Amino acid sequence: MTKAIGVQFRSGIKIYDFKQKDDSIEIRDKVLVETAYGEEIGTVRYVGKKVGKSQDTPLKDVQKVLTEKDIDRLKRLKDDHLGYADIFRAKAEEYKLPMKLADFEFSLDGEKVTFYFTADSRVDFRNMVRDMSRQVKKTVLLRQMGQRDEARVLDGFGACGRPICCRSFLMQLENISMDMVREQYEGTRNSSKVSGICGKLMCCLAFENGENKSKGKSQNAK
């Protein structure tokens, strides 16, 4: 039996398993791992998951746990290149691509920069990414994300005054239905009361719906 950690990347809510070598890795640590996009930095969401040896693909190792020095370096890299956001917007306008920049980040070695953006539909940005790579003289990746993922990346506070759920503790985004709204906000016709900062129905509706069902089962069992 192998132990795994769960790593979440900025571009989405999905969590991926990587091999846990020892017990020194903790939840919320930043780690460097190898993915289909090359080396990427992710956040540890769980540790100690037991994985059977019968799975088809062996788990990849964690290459490095980021130190405070590494995290400071990444922040300085971004602060020193804030103009990259303007380059992205200018190129999107030049190529007439309806892309809205959410954020960007550097790789640990500073040689790769990843831009996260939203768009209403799939975007063919191949010419734009080549042009940007030539201009900034670095490897450029463009990653499209949904509106709910954008809110998680940008962070913020919900109507309750607490950090948004998708950023603070939810491990996956559930489909939210109007039935959940009717059950918890009976009589409301104001969509703004049940919408998060992303403009979609609030993630906590699904979480609270599950909690209410669990409480109902417990009460029925007594």
Low-confidence stretches: 214-222
Total domains, how many? 3
N/C terminus separation: 38 Å
What topology, given as strand order, has the largest sheet?
2-1-4-3-5
The level-1 CATH class of the largest domain: Alpha Beta
Radius of gyration (CA) equals 20 Å
Structural overview:
The chain is α+β, with helices and mostly antiparallel strands. It folds into three domains: about 1-65, no CATH class; about 75-145, 2-Layer Sandwich (GMP Synthetase, Chain A, domain 3); about 155-220, no CATH class. The protein has seven helices and eight strands; from the N terminus they run βββββααββαβαααα. The strands form two sheets. Strands 2-1-4-3-5 form a five-stranded antiparallel beta sheet, with no helix packed on it. A three-stranded mixed beta sheet has the order 6-7-8, with helices on both faces. The protein is globular, with a radius of gyration of 20 Å. The two termini are about 40 Å apart.
Task: Describe this structure in a few short sentences.
This protein is α+β, with helices and mostly antiparallel strands and 222 residues long.
Quickly list its features.
single chain, about 220 residues, alpha+beta, GMP Synthetase, Chain A, domain 3, five-stranded antiparallel beta sheet, 7 helices, 8 strands, disordered C terminus
